[in-house]
UniProtKB/TrEMBL annotation:
It comes from the Bacteria. NAD(+) binds at residues 12-18, 106, 113, 130-132. Residues 7-146 form the Lactate/malate dehydrogenase N-terminal domain. Substrate binds at residues 93, 99, 132, 163. Signal peptide: none annotated. Its EC number is 1.1.1.37. The lineage of its organism: Bacteria, Bacillati, Actinomycetota, Actinomycetes, Kitasatosporales. Residues 157-322 form the Lactate/malate dehydrogenase C-terminal domain. Transmembrane segments: none annotated. Belongs to the LDH/MDH superfamily. MDH type 2 family. This is Malate dehydrogenase. It holds the Pfam family Ldh_1_C. It catalyses: (S)-malate + NAD(+) = oxaloacetate + NADH + H(+).
Amino acid sequence: MTRTPVNVTVTGAAGQIGYALLFRIASGHLLGADVPVKLRLLEIPQGLKAAEGTAMELDDCAFPLLKGIDIFDDPNQAFEGANVALLVGARPRTKGMERGDLLSANGGIFKPQGKAINDHAADDIKVLVVGNPANTNALIAQAAAPDVPAERFTAMTRLDHNRAISQLAKKTGADVTDIKRLTIWGNHSATQYPDVFHAEIAGKNAAEVIGDQAWLADEFIPTVAKRGAAIIEARGASSAASAANAAIDHVHTWVNGTAEGDWTSMGIPSDGSYGVPAGLISSFPVTCKDGKYEIVQGLDVNEFSRARIDASVAELIEERDAVRELGLI
Ligand code: NAD
Ligand code: LMR
């Protein structure tokens, strides 16, 4: 049976992440090895030529699943019929720049894109915001799309999730595939909280396997939370291939489900669970099934975790209030 291609819109297609992302979407990693895709690339006018070059390279791969590439500088056209939207295009943080500074620089991008999604995307649209500050940019886009169910707007904390798994594997000598049920809470920023208290390493409680709360507090959490800044320091540019990989993981898991007994981390609109004010786009532990996600309920939040979740949520509240002041939501 021939399947109808899924329309995937990618913004910032000519950027670093775009370059690492598009080839993996086209080769079936985003949605599945049997799902044909059409790419709809959005760039600003200065980025169009480079996007055309990338499209030429995509053509040259002769990917069996790639059924078309269109390039636009108008969001209304780029989101026409979109089933999946990856909002990557934004101004990356550069050395010495605080994420808070990005709010006004990027806010203007996400409001018109949210409106274009509202007016033109397919009914089953799923949105992942990668461009920073991702959680708050997702909030801006969502607010501009009142006709789209709010839960379709998500922000990427999967890179943080993957980073945390990798750090735990290094510390304990476990294989990354042995690590389950890790959670990133809060904002995709240095205040995020990678939580191992419910995680398992080869079936055993991760906090017990590590047995060293000082390592958690002084090494693990800061390493994961500040990894983005460390990559910028080392590369002179923000993470790109690992960010693209995490975007692929996020959407693949959302569409195809989490494994039995495991969960993942996604920035999603809060329903008030775990004391996170309803409506904030915050990272939670979630399971996915049949293209929908659900927050994992009933986890015990100890004092150590509570203080850290609250600190990250407080930052999200500040960001929300700042964009409200700017009239962006
Ligand atoms: P980049 O500068 O290489 O590329 C950004 C691209 O977006 C550019 O080609 C630019 O022309 C384009 N662009 C800018 N405004 C646009 C608009 N209004 N519409 C369409 N395209 C537009 O940056 P990058 O390295 O690809 O990073 C992109 C974003 O992803 C940054 O905000 C970065 O901070 C963020 N990021 C997020 C995570 C995460 O885990 N959530 C990880 C890494 C990077
Ligand atoms: C990352 O986590 O690598 C990025 O979000 C860092 C950044 O600020 O671009």
